[in-house]
Amino acid sequence: MCYGRSYENELRSYSEIKQKNLNSNPMADNHLMIKCKEYLKLLCEDITERCVGSNGNRQATRFMQKELSLQEWETEMVEFEAMDWEENGASLKSDGDFNIPSVYMTEEEGSKLISGIGKIVFLDSRSRRIPGKGYNVIGKKGNNTSAKIVVTAHIDAKKGTPGAIDNATGVIVLLLLSDLLKDYKGNKLIEIVTFNGEDYYAAPGQKNYISVNKNKFDNILLNINIDGAGYKEGLTAFSFYNLPDEILYVAKKVINHFSGITEDIQWPQGDHSIFVQAGVPAIAVSSKWLIDNISYQDITHTEKDNIGIVDCNKIVEISQALNTLIRSL
Ligand SMILES: [Zn+2]
After folding, report:
1. Which of 119, 156, 269, 304 is most buried when burial is the number of CB atoms within 10 A of its CB?
2. Average pLDDT of the residues in 60-71
């Protein structure tokens, strides 16, 4: 691989920033650690649920908006219709936000039902749908709309899970990054986008973002999406999607500087796919353990996804790495 003269500026700015930001500042690290813990408690414990359309979800998005504006970001709450639901059936389960009523039963229960072939059975589904509003929260800094860096994380969580690494930690990275980039005066427009609805079939917030921005994807230089980050075991995994050489070069330099971060395989199950499909280069940030075990892990979407499995040091490290990366582009 050849890194020609055109990268000299990136290199220079990278090493300047490295000196300025990375020569470890324990006070700053400590401040970010304290914030990380507070945010984690708020998003996963004080707010008891974050599924789209629920009160908790709206509380979380309002909080996000307030924090971003406190860090001097220009904010916007983009409203859309969402569907919450509740289920009161002990043995019947409602599933997702399908428009068709559906009831699920396990194989075990089904085999009991088989013995009643020919008989009439009654199904009493005690679930109901609750229409409500949901919001994508957007924070902007800078005004160069022709060169945007869009940093994304989804704020919703599956019903019945605190959603710590899926995806409170992603939201917390956005919040810490908004603090680190508070004084950003670079020549890019930085957009922090809190998506809402990633873990739901209808993905209402993502669909809204795509329709509002459908002719503007060409102006996005890079998407950075954080989902599943900060798991206590293993390294942080950065994966790259169609990065132009100059961005790839800077990204690799940044990764090399942070001992807890490694480059890892691509995975499609996140909001970065929205950008990749639109031809936008992307970086996805997650936990290596999670990516390695993606098909058989039983943490995300369950009650095991609680604050006990989060390593706040990793969240702080990711925020600092992304701060360095963004300032170097
Ligand atoms: Zn997720």
Report:
1. 156
2. 97
For the chain, state the CA radius of gyration. 21
How high is the pLDDT of residue 75? 97
CA of 227 to the centre of ligand 1 (A): 5
**Residues 164-206 pLDDT 10s:** 999 999 999 999 999 999 999 999 999 999 999 876 667 888 8
With bands split at pLDDT 50, 70 and 90, how would you rate the model's confidence at 88?
low
- For residue 156, report the distance from its CA to the centre of ligand 1, in Å: 8
Q: How far is the CA of 74 from the centre of ligand 1 (A)?
A: 26
For residue 166, how far is its CA from the centre of ligand 1 (angstroms)? 5
Has residue 113 got a pLDDT over 90? no
Q: What's the 152 CA to ligand 1 centre distance in angstroms?
A: 11
With H, G, I as helix, E, B as strand and everything else as coil, classify residue 225.
Answer: strand
Q: Which residue has the tokens 């990793």?
A: 314
Q: Which position has the higher pLDDT, 27 or 1?
A: 27
**Angle, to 10 degrees, between the axis of helix 169-180 and the axis of helix 26-41?**
140
More confident residue, 124 or 292: 292
If you measure from the C-alpha of residue 198 to the centroid of ligand 1, how many angstroms do you get, rounded to a whole number? 6
Q: What is the pLDDT of residues 130-140, one digit of tens each?
A: 778 899 999 99
Pair 271, 171: CB distance under 8 Å: no
167 Cα to the center of ligand 1, angstroms:
5
33 vs 249: CA distance, rounded Å: 29
Query: What is d(CA 4, CA 21) in angstroms, rounded to the nearest whole number?
Result: 26
CATH of 5-84+132-328, one of 3.40.50.720, 3.40.50.920, 3.40.630.10, 3.40.50.300: 3.40.630.10
Q: Token digits for 104? A: 């699920």
Residue 176: Cβ within 10 Å count: 25
Residue spans of the domains in the chain: they are 5-84+132-328
Token code pair at residue 30: 């400590």
